[in-house]
Amino acid sequence: MASLVRSPAGESGFREGIRTSPRRHDIRRVGVLGAGTMGARIAAHIANAGIPVLLLDLAAAPPNRNAVAMQALDGLKKAKPAAFADALAASLITVGNFDDDLEKLRECDWIVEAVAENLEIKRDLLAKVTAHIRPDTILTTNTSGLPVSKIAEALPDGLRSRWLGTHFFNPPRYMRLLEVIPTADTDPDVVEAISNFADLKLGKTIVRANDTPNFIANRIGVFAMLNTFRVMKAQRLSIEEIDLLTGPVIGWPKTGTFRLADMVGIDVIYNVARNFAAAGGDERSDLGLPPEIAELVKRKWLGDKTQQGFYKKVREKDGSETRLVFNAEVMDYRAAARVSFPLLEMLKSNESPAERIRALMSGNEKDKAAAFYRAMLPELWIYAAHRIGEVSRTLLEIDRAMKAGFNWELGPFEMWDAAGVPETVEIMRGSGLSIPSAVERLLATDGRSWYRDGGSEFFDPQSGVYQRVEQRPELLSVSHFEKSNGRLAGNAGVSLIDVGDGVGCFEFHSKMNTIGRDIVTFLTRELRDGSTAMASFDAFVVTSDAANFSAGANLMQLLLAIQDEEWDEIDSMVRSFQGMTRAIKFCSRPVIVAPFGLCLGGGTEISLHGAGRQAHLELYTGLIETSVGLVPAGGGCKEMLLRAIAVADQIKSNGRVDSVELHGTIKTAFETIAMAKMSASAFEARSLHLLDVADGISMNRDRLLFDAKTKALEMIRTGYSAPVPKKDIAAPGGSVLATLKLGVYLMREGEFITEHDVKVANHVARILAAGEVSAGTQVTEDYLLDLEREAFLSLCGEPKTAERIGYTLKTGKPLRN
């Protein structure tokens, strides 16, 4: 279980800026009450953090009294998206039941109640468990909207100081937000302990919410959805049109409104909205759930979990799938239509959501898309402004909650700033809308935006002045340092940013962070002695604030060169890429690569060559070049061979170059490359040897830069010495090559792969065997790079490779030709 142990500070002693929990509230074991969808997944994610979990639910009939919780655990192991980041984490969950195992709760430092959203059910369960809780144990509820203080009425007075709400968003492994809801009785130390644990160990963005109906994110999110329904009906827009209008164009997820509802569950939306209405006290009581939603719930057309909701997929006789969309007029389905809006098409190439929002709000009001935004967004902003001081202390919590809980790129107040507060207020007045007092106060103080000075200050309506945004050192982003320190150097694809303490950050910012000539040239130059970067910094980090680390090398540039038969140009491109990864590996300063999200192909090769790696838990990395008919040629095959040799040496050192261990580790490396395997987490990347055991894993995406920087500083402190190019690599040789080729032959005979797959795989085999040489022949890293480049150029000349590249660029999917 050693692989499950994390160091929150990036496996070093550098702990500046980290808040530590009071010792009396150390959380070493957690109990989860309720093994339903939410409770089970909360348990799984706590186990992902390496924390033992006791998962309890109702007792079943003998002989297996724990059948309910056991079935939930079995479901977690097969869940999609995966609940466990590491298969080993499942062993940290112990199951039990409410009748036989409550005494085991005494071993738990934190107990999370996650049963049905019913006040009486929650109270009854808590009344049963209170006798089994230690005097220092923290007890929380995962309610998504019930008043936390009302649930606490079942608790004895002595426990109420250790009681609060912890509202996770589903699925807990992937959704960053955790709303923490203290009551008037909650001990501040308890709030701090839970907040720190969830931040460091669970990777959560912590937002403090007031104990009001639906808290923050669901309160704003449900309003946004209901308001969208209202505008949709008024303007007679279709489901498909709404999903396009409420998607990435305004910085919201590509699911849009209705696809999101299907994913979350229409019944969940229905119940949250009903709780919302029942709680009262909301000035927009005119916004109710459309009757069609109640009918969908009645028919149990609940979305993805019932295979139909607002959308439904039908499999045709030929095996293809047709997407249908709900037709409320006849309560049935029709074929989904492709929709578009000229205004949205014009903004496709603009990658800034703020600029897009400004353009959409300033569009011609007779334009169909502009009319929608002018009707929908001002109402959202007005509603959010009314919530300041009610659902949270300031507007900061509202923006953070919507970004972390609903995956909005900008919070409502950031969106409003993008559109222009004074300009949009004039639109609101012209439409007869009532302006909230918070807005009037902002304008009365000559404020023109909710945030100013690059987001370092925000307007507080209660005091009537701008206040500083708290900047915790361990949560600072690359963009923060860029705003503070400027860009030291860079070009269209990459920037060099001073992130403090003598560490420079190379930040990619090309489309999907693809690696083209600009990035290759810049890194190669700046990582050489005597460069601006080397004169300015003691260490480097490669990371960014983007959604993905890198989609790999720029395939479009390569395809154009292939089509023009520019073979010398391609050879030069490969040599340059190899020169860049060489510069990273042999730089006299440590270069820590901090990958996250998608890290594919060339991005993985950059990662492999770092002096160390600090990865985010959600790392989807792989050498996937074979899927487009190529081989890794930026040193990826070379590095995988060196890792395979090192692992074999660790397993057994018997002096035999062609040992069984070496055959096994090279076979694993071959499968990883030839089958274009991609990790589903950072832990799986370790099992594929794309990360080393010594590489750190950050649970919290917001801490990744800090953790990577910590690792770099620790390397400096311990006296970093750059490696030297290896010139005595013992070649695996002919027997390994023969074994790998036999495996390829058998795969082809079984019709598991195509003829072109055979060509590609045999090239990979030849590189990993170090060519047709005798086992034990000493070769150099440069020799292996030559083999990579030779194979790459050969495959570029294959028509089927060009077909694969073109198909992938067009569809985003691999082609098996």
What are the defining features of this structure?
817 residues; alpha/beta; 8-stranded mixed β-sheet; 7-stranded mixed β-sheet; disordered N terminus
Give an account of the 3D structure.
This protein is an alpha/beta fold and 817 residues long. The protein is built from 31 helices and 25 strands. An 8-stranded mixed sheet has the order 3-2-1-4-5-6-7-8. A 7-stranded mixed sheet has the order 15-16-17-18-19-21-23, with helices on both faces. A 3-stranded antiparallel sheet has the order 9-10-11. The longest helix is centred in the middle third of the chain and has 20 residues, at 368-387. The relative contact order is 0.07.
Low-confidence stretches: 1-22
Total number of helices: 31
Strand content: 5-15%
> What is the strand arrangement across the widest sheet?
3-2-1-4-5-6-7-8
Count of DSSP strands: 25
Helix share of residues? 40-55%
- What assembly state would you assign to the polypeptide chains in this entry? single chain
What is the first-to-last residue Cα distance?
42 Å
Based on Cα principal axes, name the global outline. Answer: globular
Radius of gyration: 28 Å
Average pLDDT taken over every residue: 92
Largest sheet: 8 strands, mixed
SS class: alpha/beta
